[in-house]
């Protein structure tokens, strides 16, 4: 199927519409981005690529990386991982402490900040150099050695990351963080800081459209059953307190980040990355959501 | 695809396994059911039927009816309905009051008890005889005029329904119930009391596998976009506090009831009903969940 | 000690100050009261009376009655009563459901609505005609047979009492209400509806300034140890979510009602009633609180 | 009044009774204390001293110091202080995060851990050497230069203080901690580590029995109105989640610490310190509470 026209059409139309929302302001370094950037890239399982707009411009991957770190931990530990983090939607914002207290320090799901911090703690257990493992997976999937950490972004987040410190220290008090809190958060902020563009992001997520395998089938990152489960968690928990709404409107597993990126996956068919920095009040890209809603309506490509 | 052998095989194997959980005890009339009953029925979009075990025995539909009442309200009101009830997973048990208080009387989703009670209030607004409208939809979809309300079950629930009274009065105090609380709960308990068997249930839910249309294409209950959205809500909210786990293990939209029934839908392919009365601690059929998990693993039929 | 001048002085000064707050609007019948009424009456343990302003005008006793109903239940059951209701401040508004859910249907204290409803349920257990017992206690203490229930107020509250219905049904679902919910709430609304004036109210509460005994020492309503404990509960829980602030500013045990009345007790010395219908945002009489704060500052009469 | 016999009698009787509860185990250094120690000391406003048992043995002051740090901050800032911390009972355990989140980082009261941490942050603002100011106040009131910080206790607490780190970082994320979190917690743990005996503790708290003034009237630590308010906060918030119960049973303002100490104040009459290391499940000294309940019952010395 040729998505060129559909993508171009929706992209153009949205540029004519009024844009809404705010660029993430709480990370000083992110606040400087041009708020009107708008890129799209779709890669299908035959490795054909469709694009529009600022698809080659780099932005900060932020929470989208949580899917990759989760996949690395899940591949190694399989079901054992769920003793440290749940798979249920939380019904609360991404950095909520009350829920965590109620659940004795076990985060509800791996895409809340608390859950992703636990996953980083797990990666420190599993790998001697977890940063290297993460960046290698991204570079291999995207066939692009240029993907890199952004020290400026990571440093900027660390300087203001008091809420994440609170989450991590709370979990440590409950026995669910094994390593030094500052070291775990360093890893967390580093992986969130990675810079990607829409093409790289779409290429990276193709393993979830291909049941765990890379585009060239040379690497298997997850078993078929594991890939299904990561997709399920993306669907139920991928959009903070707006996960139900995303499933409802878009109908694809996906994950957003406060850098304005969103990636969505149609299992067996394609991976699709959009980027637009203005965020709605739930912290998800306003124009990104609009694009995906219209794209799935027009193409009837949805898992439901 | 012929599912006969797969269904027979899993059904037999599970009969050999130890059964777990408790029959719903809080509704006196439900507690008398034979706990070892176990039936399965799958209907595909070509109207071919596959079955096993006690697929022709009747049980109480209970919360599964919430999908039907929601569909009726949604068909009439479309997006306007979401002013009265949300579409987000709640992260709490099915009869939680705290969440409702936090959200000013707007239930998080239509499959919580509070949400389903609001939907009943809406049906009383929309239809002069909502019981008739509900039962007619079921009879038409199942091509079976014998489907009926169970006065004994409904009366039994009303006699112990204090928590639902509390939920309904709380929402009335917040202005989200328009009619008399006792009348709304009468309707709620009546529709939950309806008796069905696995075959009827599978036939009823075929409209969600067929993008809103009946098996014979003569009736349209929902638009394609609406059907997709009901399926999305089933996936994210269909299993109380275990919705994430169901999406994760089974990977299909579905809905459970405390009568021990579960229905799951593979859009474009089939509707599948299972029944086994023993419930796990989250209130979902133990053996029903086991069946669905094994069925989707063996057939690789999943939306993810 | 002669309090005439102090009372007159503060009363006059406050009349010159701008009045703030709103008359309770949620009970239709209460909303019609003249918002600028302002009365004071102090009775000391020698039965000497000091007064100012509208001290002889009647108003609705509302939540202040909860102290009397609690005393009646406590006199009969002593410590056994605390199996049904706690003695801890709740840290939440007077009609909160979340806290109650967290505590499995045991209200945190007897002055929350939930707690007072449980006390009414207890009175129905203890007395064949609890209304008669309550009104007789009030008439005897005030030496005034004219004190009466207000059917208009009670009916007005019942017509809008959905939140209290929710609280009561929730507690019934948890096994902490024994009688029919509507009967218990009828009693609750009836005792809250009683009309009193400042003099009557001050006379009634003298038993808590006299360690459980009536002004003429002919009746003993509570043991010395019990009276101390009721006073302690008034101090820690008497002002909804503002109890700490009242202890802090005024420094006397007391109880407020949405009718605009407040009663305060200096053990061993006096009972003091004030009335002014405008309520602050926490539901306590604005001018009443101002009066008590200034009175205890000027006289240095405080338990601390 | 001569309390010698009463104190000796209750002390002896309690030694014959079975002791209950556990020594605070979460601070390694505290866990080594002899669990059967039991001391009492009462000082009246004429500076007469009554004692029993291990009244001269040192223990860790822990949370009791929060009254002293609060007094120092309140003396300087007066009502301005309440912009940073409330005066309402919390209805939750001493280290609860949910409540804090609900209140946007403003602790409910100054005796929760969060509240006391904010007070330490305030002291760092007000004084160039807050440790010196605190220890000088204690030494002056107790007329004893030997009172000292315990580095071993403070270091032991810091090594396990993850929950307090979580509280402090959360408040910093909400803008209610101005200084470096580690520095604030260093001060917090240092002042909690101070070693005292019952006599010193009773002498220290005499300023709250004397409306703000020292035993020899040479120092004024608080105005009369301020002293009343500190006593009121002790009464409503001094015993974590058991404040209502303490007011109810004992009927005096007081404060407990996990070192097993409790101090209580009868305004205008005396200050009374007890020490016994075994704690009940709410974290308050089991035998200390028993002593105070019996003492106030026998002497009828209570504010109510």
The total strand number of chain A stands at 7
Report the CATH superfamily of chain A.
DD-peptidase/beta-lactamase superfamily
Helix tally of chain A equals: 13
Q: Tell me the helix content of chain A.
A: 40-55%
Uncertain regions spanning at least 5 consecutive residues of chain A = none
* Principal-axis shape of chain A: globular
Radius of gyration of chain A: 18 Å
Q: Which oligomeric state applies? A: homotetramer
The largest sheet of chain A has its strands arranged as 2-1-7-6-5
List the helices and strands and how they pair.
Four copies of one chain form a homotetramer.
Chain A: H1 4-16, E1 39-44, E2 49-53, E3 59-60, H2 65-77, H3 98-102, H4 113-126, H5 130-142, H6 151-160, H7 162-173, H8 181-192, E4 195-196, H9 198-204, H10 206-209, H11 224-237, H12 243-249, E5 254-256, E6 261-266, E7 270-275, H13 286-299
Antiparallel strand pairs in A: 1-2, 1-7, 3-4, 5-6, 6-7
Helix pairs in contact in A: 1-13, 2-4, 2-11, 4-7, 4-8, 5-9, 6-8, 7-8, 11-12
Describe the structure.
Four copies of one chain form a homotetramer. Chain A has 304 residues and is of the alpha+beta class. Chain A has one domain: Beta-lactamase, CATH 3.40.710.10. In chain A, 45% of the residues lie in helices and 10% in strands. Chain A has 13 helices and seven strands. Chain A has a five-stranded antiparallel sheet with strand order 2-1-7-6-5, sandwiched between helices. In chain A, a hairpin with a 4-residue loop joins β5 (254-256) and β6. The longest helix of chain A is centred in the middle third of the chain and has 14 residues, at 113-126. Chain A is globular, with a radius of gyration of 18 Å. The relative contact order of chain A is 0.19. The model of chain A has no long low-confidence stretch (mean pLDDT 94). Chains in contact: A-B, A-D, B-C, C-D.
